[in-house]
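Example record

One chain of 270 residues, shown exactly as stored in the release files.
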Amino acid sequence: MAVWAIGDIQGCYTSFKALLEKIAFNPKKDRLWIAGDLVNRGEDSLETLEYLYGIKENIEVVLGNHDISLIAAYYGIKKSNPTIDPILTSPNAKKLIDWLRRQKFLHVDYKMGYCMAHAGISPEFDLGMALSYAKRIEEKLQSEDVEFWLKQMFKHGSVRFDREASAIDIDRYILSAFTRMRYCYGDYRLDFDQKGAPTEVLREKGLKPWFACDNRIDIELKIIFGHWSTLGLYQNDDVLGLDTGCLWKGKLTAARIDADKQEIVQVSCA
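Predicted structure tokens for this chain:
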């Protein structure tokens, strides 16, 4: 058995299947960790989602911002677009959306020494907090009040965690941190506007990647994340970033995480 973590697919089904062929993925015995953003913008979002649903017993999925946007479009909260229209008009739409709603925001495997969240883990959270808060919004996404809750999530939220804030504001922060975070200031404030790679100009403004934030609370597991195509493949002792911009004519990346020596495999994307 092999366990592979894969970065943002975003509907690039042809590249995804080419990567699975390159790593000799066998759904009968191997497992995949998918770091979120399964769909949107790529040409084959429906095919991607249907394939993953078909092997759902052999994968771990965390939700990304594009996956949340798809769910919101299903409920009429956000506008659709030509790349996700086929999902929303599919006879399997409800089945696929309900399956997405049951996925996690944080996956943890203590034995393997890894955890995974689409954008990462807030520098203000330890692992116990992160698990608790991920569970909190997972339950909201799976609830009968999901439509009302999602409408509130797309309003402006806080850039700092505040236990004294309203329940809705706390949920907005948690969801944003898990799905949209890239940069933070030294006082833990998150910046959701900057999308480029780290530069000296940003450092002079006090902005650092969330995983390099001053006084970030240590997480005892290595964090796998995606979401940051301009950062590209990135790894240190604490994190493994796997979004290598397949959608933007970059690469789709898989990392084998169950072996003693980590293996990185990539395919170029059309």
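Notes: Residues 3-268 form a domain with the Purple Acid Phosphatase; chain A, domain 2 fold (CATH 3.60.21.10).
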